[in-house]
Amino acid sequence: MNGKLGQQGRDCSYPGTSVVVVEPPSPATSPDSNDSSTPELEKAGLLNKTKIAEGGRKLRKNWNPSWVVLVGNSLVFFKDPKSQTPSSWKPGNSRPESSVDLRGAVVQWTNDLSSKKNVFKVRHTPAGRDVPQTTVVLFVYYFIDILRYFISPCILGKSNVSILVSLRERESCSSGLSVKKTFSRPLERKFIPRSASNVENSERKRVRSRLKKFILKRPPLQNLQEKGLIKDQVFGCHLEMLCEREKNNVPRFVRLCTEAVERRGLETDGIYRVSGNLAVIQKLRFLVNHEKLNLEQSEWEDIHVITGALKLFFRELPEPLVPYGFFTDILETVKMSDYLDKVDRLKSLVLSMPPPNQDTMRFMFSHLKRVMEHSDSNRMSTQNIGIVFGPTLMRPERDNVNMAINMVYQNQAVELILNEFDRIFRPSNFTSL
């Protein structure tokens, strides 16, 4: 039988199996027994079943849902589960679709009869016959244990009431059990419900296993990037990779921002020093990563939003504009006492940087010089620009106890580059921008 049990209840004895646990009905007269009580309804559930043989003749498999009731010595199949609720069940309540007498029956797991999971087979041979008359293939974990448990006493002709007397009687009956054993665990242990936490752990393991298989099947990120399905973002992208992708040694976003500032912000008081609206800056950051940007639109009229986004771009570079390997050398250069040697040394360091870093530094400091030329109106002197851009354009790979002292030298390095821009950034030393 293949399928899921009815939804009226859930038994946690086995993972992924919903079953209906039914209380015994009140006593009533049974037409099939001389006893004064109706046979107890032991288990009921909605399963899928198919007959594969009947009367010694093979049948074509035809899986159909069926309401299965285990009662007394029989496994009874109904089409309508509603009429067989625990409170109303009686032998004559509705006509069963079919039934299997469990006396002399054999129940066993089977994997060769169906590709479905958790399939077991019930074979019934009437007394005095050698050929099995009915073979029903079923699906569910818990039912097979119940069936095995009840078949042995059925062979001995005992009622199902006496089955529950004691564990000792159960074991004494096992000598006549005509069932192929497939489990080495004690039968009693299978009836112990598992806790909800165990069920949750089992579900987590199942989900984890499926996620692992899904992740392992995913193509590598590099392959997706090569096919153009995934593109690196502008913010947070390595400078060299961004410039290579844009086929220019100065990122397009840097050009857009500086051009907007020079058109309408050079004389703005506190340019680059005053913070813009952080929410609007984040919106601008998002749009840059996903679509073409037009900074002339009205929503970007606040120039401090544009300058704030430009500073954020440099701060989010995985490696700053001044590469980590140059940080210590530049700070040591700034500490030199001889001014001319200091400038020559700084120029040598800049020329040894990768081309995207060189050209972007030249472009940015050229822009900052134009900002500084309007210091009378915007109050952005060389010192103020150094304070803003010192920690923005260069930083150590790891923070240390000298961070405050280093920041002073970072600011001085920016001031020195601005003051000696023409000497450090000679046009012959750089590619055309």
What does this structure look like?
This protein has 433 residues and is α+β, with helices and mostly antiparallel strands. It folds into two domains: 41-200, PH-domain like; 239-429, Rho GTPase activation protein (Phosphatidylinositol 3-kinase, Chain A). The protein contains 16 helices and eight strands. The chain has helices spanning 141-155, 160-163, 167-173, 196-217, 221-226, 239-246, 252-264, 278-290, 303-315, 324-334, 339-351, 355-372, 375-378, 382-393, 403-419, 421-424; strands spanning 41-54, 57-58, 64-71, 74-78, 98-101, 105-109, 119-124, 134-139. Strands 1, 2, 3, 4, 5, 6, 7 and 8 form an eight-stranded antiparallel sheet that branches. A hairpin with a 2-residue loop joins strand 3 (64-71) and strand 4. Helix 14 packs across helix 15. The longest helix is centred in the middle third of the chain and has 22 residues, at 196-217. The model is unreliable at 1-37, 128-132 and 155-192 (pLDDT under 50).
Question: What's the CATH H-level superfamily name of the largest domain?
Answer: Rho GTPase activation protein
Spans where pLDDT lies below 50 across 5 or more residues: 1-37, 128-132, 155-192
Largest sheet: 8 strands, antiparallel
DSSP strand count: 8
Global Rg: 41 Å
Fraction of residues in helix: 40-55%
- Known CATH architecture of the largest domain: Orthogonal Bundle
Distance between the termini: 75 Å
Mean pLDDT: 74
* Run of helices and strands: EEEEEEEEHHHHHHHHHHHHHHHH
Give me the secondary-structure category. Answer: alpha+beta
Could you tell me the strand content as a percent range?
A: 5-15%
| CATH class value of the largest domain | Mainly Alpha
| Tally of individual helices | 16
Number of domain modules: 2
Shape: rod-shaped
